[in-house]
Task: inverse folding
């Protein structure tokens, strides 16, 4: 009886050891599991990989970013087409929320809620999140929108068929249909400036330097420092878009 | 003010709550409502045809060819609203040349072509080949050459090759059923896979689209069968009509169950988007969803068809009831597509407000243009019925 | 195989070859160079003209104003943030003049009291009360406020 037991346990031991060793061999060949860092998984590229940081605590809602963006990128002036805009959030003492963005904030903001009713109010500048798992790139049927090696999402205006599927797929409302070109248009993170070593126009002209962009691969870059030292948050993280636009001091009411 | 943007300024003044500034204009309009509607008719009509061929429901024989030709006529038009809604219609070919494989839309071109070329064309061809050869022998002039070309110049109607045709036709139909499921389930996936939009993003979407497609396709063939026989002053095979109505009844029940399940699940889980979607249904969609889609398009037909399963009024009245029910179902399914496509764009992805939508009368995305795309398939069908009259076909036992 | 099936097969082969031929002819040259997109489109976007030329372009002519600005509260501001894009002015300074905004509304965009503006980030005044009949620039030099 005892003999049988020991032989059984020995067999168990051998089997368990075999399974463990096998598992170890198999898992060692797989990449180790990483809890997702800031939703965007760092891409191993030779060059820079761009991210954006916006500091809500610095934004004064002047709308210069939205205004300069339209000029720099020849965006139609009508108030229906924006690559970059600012929203004013106001949470009233009764808990209700009011959000405004008249002409994308280009003409500045007036607080329409009386001061004594306000619990909390702040500005949120919005622009393309240049997601690393872009839902818009995923759905483009022809390959007219793509993510460059630098992590910038662009639209090929000579190849876009104008099906607008990407507009539907963007959770942040960052794409619009260009009324003259009849193709979809969006923020390029001023690709034409960034490629020449300049900053995007909205960031160069921001009076309080509330928005910066830079190389996420470089730990010494301003963006990397921003992410490291502040409590950053991306918009709609549950959608797992791999957004690379990090906000400091973002309220959870913001969508 | 530039008149080009007048409608946008109007829409801007009607914005309710907060929407992202780029969301004022709906990206997809009436033409994209038509696209799933027409594709659904294609898939539904085909599935009715295969009920006869594959599942051996013999009483449906009189509608077999009509269903196939209807499916074909609508399939030929299915891509037109899609192409015409594009900002750059002349670049539409890119979707076939450089399809982006992660895009649900890119694969549509191939699913469509597979369905058109391999399934429908082949099935109809195998079914008609014997008659094409006979008609080519009998006819004169252009018609003779058309039939001859369509028979690919072959004169071979030996019993052996006819048997082979029948076998191949059967195989195509068997392949056709999953293909029809694929075609329309897949159209549902185009919407269901958009995670940014909670009104669309549900795994149920392909299934709901599929069953509503069957509902609409069967209703269309039922109405067409009544109309065609009325025009030809022929007596209707009431057994056939009753059988179609019976299947229609069953599939509406399934469709209703699926759609209810989807909504109940939405209500019970009450996620982040629940408030805005409740407002959408009770406000912006109350007429098109609650009255047109559910009331007229679902409850009324369900009640009528349900009663008819137990109590059958005399033929003439029954025919009228079937006709009206079929039309109601078609209207209901049209509004179902409307509520999905338009409804999904009325609320902001910030979940904080609504934009508005006004259907214009003229223009490429207007009511008239849309009506044209809905009428054209009937002309194509009339042409097909003239060129390949099902009633002059030699009856074959499959 | 019966004749009609042979011809059917032939038709199929012809259609597929035609499609492949078209695909080859119509796919743009640089497509697939880096990914599923036209590689050249990246160069086209990179070559777009720059509108905002930056403070370094201003200093060569307006050195006194730039140095005055660098000592005041507005030192961090870009010149073109208020004066508008300078690409035309840089090319033809005489003909292409930049704007000199001096309205109260313009200053209000940053300096009017709004609880949404972080207090630390910018000086704010109740502009309805603060010398409401005067232009701001009468007392405040925008380059050294």
Result:
């Amino acid at each position: 009886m005892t003999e049988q037991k020991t032989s059984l346990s020995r067999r168990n031991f051998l089997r368990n050891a075999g399974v463990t060793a096998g598992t170890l061999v198999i898992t060692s060949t797989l990449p180790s599991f990483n809890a997702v860092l800031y939703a965007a998984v760092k891409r191993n590229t030779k060059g820079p990989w761009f991210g954006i940081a916006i500091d809500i605590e610095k934004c004064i809602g002047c709308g210069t970013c939205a205004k300069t963006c339209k000029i720099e990128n020849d965006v139609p002036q009508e108030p229906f087409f924006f690559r970059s805009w600012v929203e004013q959030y106001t949470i009233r003492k009764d808990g209700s929320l009011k959000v405004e963005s008249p002409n994308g904030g280009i003409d500045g903001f007036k607080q329409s809620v009386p001061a004594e009713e306000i619990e909390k109010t702040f500005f949120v500048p919005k622009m393309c999140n240049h997601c690393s798992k872009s839902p818009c790139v995923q759905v483009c049927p022809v390959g007219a929108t793509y993510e460059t090696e630098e992590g910038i999402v662009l639209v090929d205006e000579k190849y876009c068929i104008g099906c607008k599927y990407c507009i539907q797929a963007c959770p942040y409302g960052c794409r619009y249909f260009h009324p003259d070109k009849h193709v979809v248009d969006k923020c390029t993170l001023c690709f034409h400036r960034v490629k020449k070593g300049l900053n995007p126009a909205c960031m160069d002209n921001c009076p309080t330097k509330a928005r910066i962009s830079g190389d996420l691969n470089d730990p010494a870059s301003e963006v990397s420092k921003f992410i490291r030292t502040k409590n950053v948050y991306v918009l709609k993280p549950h959608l797992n878009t791999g957004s690379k636009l990090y906000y400091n001091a973002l309220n959870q009411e913001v969508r | 003010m530039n008149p080009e943007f007048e409608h946008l300024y109007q829409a801007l003044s009607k914005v309710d709550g907060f929407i992202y500034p780029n969301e004022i204009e709906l990206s997809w309009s009436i033409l994209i409502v038509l696209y799933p509607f027409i594709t659904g008719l294609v898939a539904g009509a085909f599935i009715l045809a295969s009920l006869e061929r594959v599942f051996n429901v013999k009483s449906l024989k009189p509608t077999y060819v009509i269903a196939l030709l209807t499916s074909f006529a609508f399939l030929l038009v299915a891509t037109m609203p899609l192409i015409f809604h594009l900002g750059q219609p002349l670049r539409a070919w890119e979707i076939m040349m450089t399809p982006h494989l992660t895009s649900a839309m890119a694969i549509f071109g191939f699913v469509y072509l597979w369905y058109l070329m391999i399934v429908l064309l082949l099935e109809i061809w195998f079914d008609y080949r014997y008659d094409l050869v006979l008609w080519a022998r009998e006819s004169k002039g252009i018609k003779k050459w058309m039939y001859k070309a369509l028979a690919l110049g072959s004169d071979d109607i030996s019993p052996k090759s006819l048997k082979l045709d029948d076998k191949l036709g059967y195989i195509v139909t068997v392949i056709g059923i999953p293909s029809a499921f694929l075609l329309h389930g897949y159209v549902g996936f185009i919407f269901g896979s958009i995670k940014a939009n909670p009104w669309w993003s549900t795994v149920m979407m392909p299934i709901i689209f599929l069953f509503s497609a069957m509902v609409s396709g069967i209703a269309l063939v039922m109405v067409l069968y009544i109309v065609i026989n009325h025009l030809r002053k022929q007596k209707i095979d009431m057994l056939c009509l009753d059988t179609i109505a019976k299947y229609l009844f069953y599939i509406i029940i399934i469709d209703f169950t699926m759609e209810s399940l989807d909504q109940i699940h939405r209500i019970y889980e009450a996620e982040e988007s629940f408030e805005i979607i409740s407002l959408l249904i009770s406000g912006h969609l109350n007429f098109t969803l609650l009255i047109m889609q559910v009331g007229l398009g679902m409850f009324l037909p369900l009640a009528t068809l349900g009663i008819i399963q137990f109590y059958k009024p005399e033929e003439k009245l029954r025919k009228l009831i079937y006709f009206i029910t079929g039309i109601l179902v078609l209207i209901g399914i049209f509004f179902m597509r409307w509520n999905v496509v338009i409804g999904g764009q009325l609320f902001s992805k910030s979940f904080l407000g609504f934009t508005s939508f006004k259907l214009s009368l003229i223009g490429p995305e207007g009511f008239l243009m849309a009506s044209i795309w809905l009428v054209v398939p009937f002309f194509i069908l009339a042409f097909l019925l003239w060129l390949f009259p099902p009633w002059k076909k030699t009856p074959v036992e499959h | 195989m019966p004749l009609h099936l042979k011809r059917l097969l032939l038709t199929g082969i012809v259609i597929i070859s035609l499609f492949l031929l078209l695909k080859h002819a119509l796919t743009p040259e640089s497509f697939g160079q880096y990914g599923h997109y036209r590689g050249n489109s990246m160069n086209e976007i990179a070559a777009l003209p720059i509108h905002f030329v930056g403070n370094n372009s201003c200093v060569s002519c307006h050195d006194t104003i730039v140095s005055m600005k660098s000592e005041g509260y507005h030192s961090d501001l870009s010149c073109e943030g208020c004066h508008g894009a300078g690409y035309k002015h840089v090319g033809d300074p005489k003909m292409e003049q930049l704007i000199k905004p001096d309205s109260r509304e313009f200053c209000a965009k940053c300096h009017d009291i709004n609880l949404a503006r972080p207090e630390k980030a910018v000086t704010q005044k109740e502009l309805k009360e603060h010398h409401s009949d005067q232009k701001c620039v009468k007392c405040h030099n925008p380059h050294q406020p």
